[in-house]
Design brief:
Blueprint (H helix, E strand, L loop, with lengths): L1 H6 L11 E9 L13 E4 L9 E7 L16 E5 L10 E5 L5 E9 L2 E5 L8 E2 L5 E10 L5 E3 L10
Parallel strand pairs: 1-3
Antiparallel strand pairs: 1-2, 3-4, 4-9, 5-6, 5-9, 6-7, 7-8, 9-10
Length: about 160
């Protein structure tokens, strides 16, 4: 009798969605002309990358491309966890600028204050201010929209 009473308190297991909405473009370089982001389509996501609150953005620009050509390159897709807003230095995030433009940058400190950094040394850091909104952590990247790999943490030395 007591066991059945306890079982009623447990909720059934929920599965993360198998597809993520593609919301539009995200700049990796010069901010794009702001345009309304709307769901264009849904992209299938492999089971190991599924999360609640995930969405996909397509990258436009080369500020997150490393010197060897790896990293987050122009045209690839990034998978963003919209619920992972805990800012930790060295991780990559999707930020919304005051004009509505989305940019993908790495979070680090610049002169003791949080700033958006590019992996490409040609782009200077931009300090964060209260008008810039963190939209979630970029946790996976795909060059073709089918094969995904986890993004890497890059500490101060750029290792990892």
């Amino acid at each position: 009798m007591e066991v059945s009473l306890l079982q009623s308190y447990f909720l059934p297991k929920r599965y993360a969605p198998s597809k993520a909405p593609v919301l539009g473009l995200i700049s990796a370089g010069t901010p794009l002309d702001p345009s309304p982001f709307s769901v264009r389509r849904r992209m299938p996501i492999p089971p190991s990358f599924r999360r609640f609150g995930m969405f996909v953005l397509q990258v436009d620009g080369d500020s997150m491309t490393l010197a060897d050509g790896s990293g987050i390159t122009h045209g690839c897709f990034v998978l963003v966890d919209g619920k992972d807003l805990i800012t930790d230095q060295g991780h990559t995030f999707a930020f919304r600028l005051p004009d509505g433009t989305m940019v993908v940058k790495r979070l680090r400190l610049f002169q003791g204050r949080p700033a958006m950094y590019s992996d490409n040394a040609a782009y200077p850091p931009v300090q964060l201010d209260p008008s810039i909104r963190n939209c979630g952590r970029v946790y996976a990247v795909s060059r073709d929209g089918q094969h995904w790999e986890m993004t890497r943490y890059r500490g101060w030395g750029g290792n990892a």
